Every structure is written in C-alpha cells, then in structure tokens.
Amino acid sequence: MSTAVEPQAAPVAEVSAVKGMRKNGKQWHDNKKAFRPRANQSSFEKRAADRKAFDATKAKIKEMKDEKEAERQRRVEAIRTKRAAKEEKERFQKMEEKMHKKRVERLKRREKRNKMLAS
C-alpha cells in the first residue's frame, strides 16, 4: 500500500475559441479579421527598386521595337529605290525604241544633272 502518485499529463486544450453563437446562425464560417489595408504593403525602397526594374525592362523593349522598325523601314526604302530604278530603266528602254541611242544618253545625263540640282 504504497502511495505512489502517478503523474498525469495536463489535458490538452484543443478547444477552439468559441465566442458564442453567431446571430445569423452560420457557425461554419470563419470569423472575420479586422480590415488592415496596409498590412501587406511593401517598403518604399522595394517598390522603388521594382519600379526601376520595370522601367529598365520597358526601355529595353522599346529599344528592341525601335531597332526592328528601323530594319523594316530600311528594307522598305531599299524596295522603293529598286522599284524606282527599274521604272526609270524601263522608261529609257521605251525611249530608245523610238529615239536614237545617243540622244537617250544625253537625256539621261541631263536628267541626272537636274536631279542633283533639285536635291
């Protein structure tokens, strides 16, 4: 008859914090927390760094688009000059059919001089 006391563990308090019954009867919904609009706001330094990185990205994209557009404009201009040269050549060939070749050569030189003066 020894009086050995068995150590008992304290009962685990896993009871959720019940604050009473909801007025609307929807006890299965979680309780709402207080509205804190600045809770997830980042620091000014972080936002400034993000904005700087965003601006750098935008500048790079703009630069790439400008390069692409310049390349396209260069190709378009090359096509235009080719077409103009082809049309002029065809015009002079038609003139050669009607006129003497030497006279057409003189007209070519005269037109070149006039172009140089106009530009």
TrEMBL record:
Keyword terms of this UniProt record: Coiled coil, Nucleus, Ribosome biogenesis, rRNA processing
CC terms in the record's Gene Ontology section: nucleolus
Domain of life: Eukaryota
Biased amino acid composition, Basic and acidic residues: 79-99
Entry's localization field: Nucleus, Nucleolus
Signal peptide: none
Biased composition (Low complexity): 1-18
Chain residue ranges for the region called Disordered: 1-52, 79-119
Entry keyword Phosphoprotein: no
Basic residues: compositionally biased ranges: 100-119
GO BP term, example: rRNA processing
Protein role: Involved in nucleolar integrity and required for processing of the pre-rRNA for the 60S ribosome subunit.
Family named by the database record: Belongs to the CGR1 family.
Protein name: rRNA-processing protein
Organism: Karstenula rhodostoma CBS 690.94
Lineage: Eukaryota, Fungi, Dikarya, Ascomycota, Pezizomycotina
